[in-house]
Specification:
190 residues; mainly beta; five-stranded antiparallel sheet; 13 strands; 52% strand; globular
Length: 190
């Protein structure tokens, strides 16, 4: 594996004698721009470490630049099928959030992209399962979405198994929440 930089992992899990890590990988970081993260585009890679042989293998999983990767929290540390993120555009000033939700499917290697609309950018997408026993894509995806035309944000809710169906709900906020805000979902188990 060549030198690189990783801010965010998507997930990692054991596969027998192997450890599998899915990460958002940058080829270069803090070289031309000391503030980062603008030296290269971020892409999803899989690193496989074979603990029996001491060998490693790396494979790029997507050509689409994206960041803030997430899986269903119930899958953290376990084999996952779906991963979510937000697209990154390479501009003249470096990397910028590009306003699309990305869903990767580890079972068949496909990527689904959902455009959020002109001037709209999202932060991290959080998966909220319908219940503890539901399928990995049975629930909702939530993110803060900024609309540049109004300079306000909203919480957007999408059905995880029907991303193309558009928002099932949106909560308008009175102000802008900065893109990059991280979050988690904690179920009320009372």
């Amino acid at each position: 594996m060549g030198p690189c930089y990783v801010f965010h992992p998507l997930n990692a899990f054991d596969d027998g004698e192997r450890v599998v890590l899915d990460v958002v990988r940058y080829d270069r970081m803090f070289d031309a721009n000391r503030l980062g993260p603008d030296d290269s585009a971020p892409h999803l890679w899989r690193w496989t470490i074979d603990t029996a042989t001491g060998t490693t293998h790396e494979e790029q999983l997507s050509d689409l630049p994206f960041e803030f990767p997430r899986v269903d929290e119930r899958r953290v540390g376990r084999r996952h099928r779906y991963g979510y993120g937000t697209t990154i555009a390479r501009g003249t000033s470096g990397n910028e959030f590009a306003g699309q939700l990305v869903r990767t499917d580890a079972s068949d290697g496909t990527t689904q992209v959902v455009d959020l609309g002109a001037g709209r950018t999202s932060g991290e997408w959080v998966m909220v399962p319908r219940d503890h026993g539901s399928a990995e894509d049975d629930g909702w995806l939530l993110s803060l979405v900024h609309d540049a035309t109004t300079d306000r944000s909203e919480v957007v809710v999408l059905a995880a198994d029907d991303l193309a169906g558009g928002p099932v709900a949106a909560v308008e906020l009175p102000n802008r929440v900065p893109v990059g805000f991280h979050g988690n979902w904690v179920a009320d188990d009372r």
